[in-house]
Amino acid sequence: MAASPRENASAVRPAGAVKRWDLEADVVVVGFGCAGACAAIAAAEAGAEVLVLERASGGGGTSAMSGGLIYLGGGTPVQTACGFEDSPEEMYKFLMAACGPEPDAAKVRIFCDESVAHFHWLVEHGVPFKHSFYPEPFMEAPTDDCLVYSGGEDAYPFDRIATPAPRAHKPQTPGAAGGFLMQHLVRATERCGARIVSDARCETLVVDEHDGVVGALLWHEQREQLVRARRGVILTAGGFIQNRAMVARHSPLLSKCSYRLGQDGDDGRAIRMAMGAGADIMRMDAAEVAIPLTPPRRLMRGILVNRSGQRFINEDTYYGHVGQECLFRQDGRMYLILDNATYERNLAGFTAAHVEDSVADLERSLGMPTDTLCRTVELYNHHAARGEDPVFHKNAAFLQALTNPPYAAIDCSTDKVLWATFTLGGLHTRPTGEVLDPDDRVIRGLYAAGRTTSGIAAYGYVSGISLADGTFFGRKAGRSAATRS
């Protein structure tokens, strides 16, 4: 595709300056990942004529790069078949704790209450799920199994807040399922009758001073084209992790992470387009930070310490919680301490950079303050021998005294191993998808869903919540735009 003139995204085009429209539809969806696909399907099912605009050559987006976990619960058929009891209330209590502080309670509430119905909607649109459970947590199964613990539901403090239940559902295919999921959602979008225009880069919004957002400007077929949206524009074009200037402005610590999880289109353009039309933004400093410490989870019988040799979290929790805690409060410096009885290589191939015959020698090798690591290990061993962890409350199944030399340290700092990150902040929206201005007023004709918005996850995260948020609230935005009076 030829380069566009790259008009500033925040410089809206006045509707009065439009002499003719090149394309027209009731609902225009910008972005064709999971949120855009579900928005288009829902809008078409509500009777709207739908146009989907995608800057790449086909649908998929960052959703297709994912592991494919979709966070669903409250008693889905898969949970029931695998013998796990769950309810919308227990799911709500967990997500309000794990995705905080201060997650959007209204979004979490409706998502939990309608989660089982959303599972059935996905199945009805061709997404298959095997009624099976995979016991290794946090990541998608290498098999075609479905259900997995993905957010530390069975670890402190969440196991004391809500009854633990696995909720991440992976579509039925071996290994990562993001591409597989998007194949089904793209086909469902095509079946619903939506028109799809690829290689079309949306440049800015067209705004009428009385009627709000009425269209968009795009660059397609080597020329500028104008698209009229009779009922609304839905922005689902991803976050801003690939925009280094926006990351530096809003969440500069993310620059320490070695892998930015997102397509080139995750450059924040949709967010800036909406800001130009008066939209409010929220939690732009928030991000998921994932370190593949496991599997196997049994490695968490060791301890995680900061550069001062002190523990800072219960090791058996979700590694995304570990990553966020380490990056934002420990400067991205962390070591996994193991002994000869607990050491092994994990799935990502992490190996020990320091091996010594004593904890004191390991402490010196790591350049830590004298006696800090020694005292940390001594205290941990004292309680672990009794099956206790009064400091960080690691579950007894992962408590094992580190008493078998030699001792090893895996350097898990940001400059040593893979850290994957993507942004969580974005446009302020209602659960129904309407975009709000800084005074909480609806911007007429403008909707958004997916990582373009500030969704369920605030400053916490659980694996599977992005695809769940995108598919669920994409549907809400699609229906809202289609039925706008």
Give an overview in words.
Helices cover 27% and strands 19% of the residues. It has 13 helices and 21 strands. It has helices spanning 34-45, 77-81, 88-98, 105-113, 115-124, 158-161, 178-191, 244-250, 269-276, 319-329, 359-365, 372-384, 465-482, and strands at 13-14, 23-30, 50-53, 70-71, 147-148, 168-169, 195-197, 201-208, 212-220, 223-235, 259-260, 281-282, 287-290, 303-305, 335-339, 354-356, 407-411, 420-423, 426-427, 434-436, 442-448. The strands form five sheets. Strands 1, 2, 3, 7, 8, 9, 10, 20 and 21 form a nine-stranded mixed sheet that branches. Helix 11 (359-365) packs antiparallel against helix 12 (372-384). The two termini are 37 Å apart. Mean pLDDT is 96; it is low at 1-5.
- The chain-level structural class is alpha/beta
Mean pLDDT: 96
Helix content estimate? 25-40%
First-last Cα distance: 37 Å
Low-confidence runs of at least 5 consecutive residues: 1-5
Specify the overall morphology: elongated
Structure summary, number of beta strands: 21
> How would a crystallographer describe the biggest sheet?
9 strands, mixed
**Percent range for β-strand residues:** 15-25%
Q: Please report the number of helical segments.
A: 13
Radius of gyration (Å): 24 Å
What are the main properties of this structure?
disordered N terminus; alpha/beta; 485 residues; 21 strands; 13 helices
How would the blueprint of this fold be written?
Blueprint: E1 13-14, E2 23-30, H1 34-45, E3 50-53, E4 70-71, H2 77-81, H3 88-98, H4 105-113, H5 115-124, E5 147-148, H6 158-161, E6 168-169, H7 178-191, E7 195-197, E8 201-208, E9 212-220, E10 223-235, H8 244-250, E11 259-260, H9 269-276, E12 281-282, E13 287-290, E14 303-305, H10 319-329, E15 335-339, E16 354-356, H11 359-365, H12 372-384, E17 407-411, E18 420-423, E19 426-427, E20 434-436, E21 442-448, H13 465-482
Parallel strand pairs: 1-8, 2-3, 2-10, 3-7, 10-21, 11-18
Antiparallel strand pairs: 4-6, 5-6, 8-9, 9-10, 12-19, 13-18, 14-15, 15-17, 16-17, 20-21
Helix pairs in contact: 1-7, 1-13, 3-4, 11-12
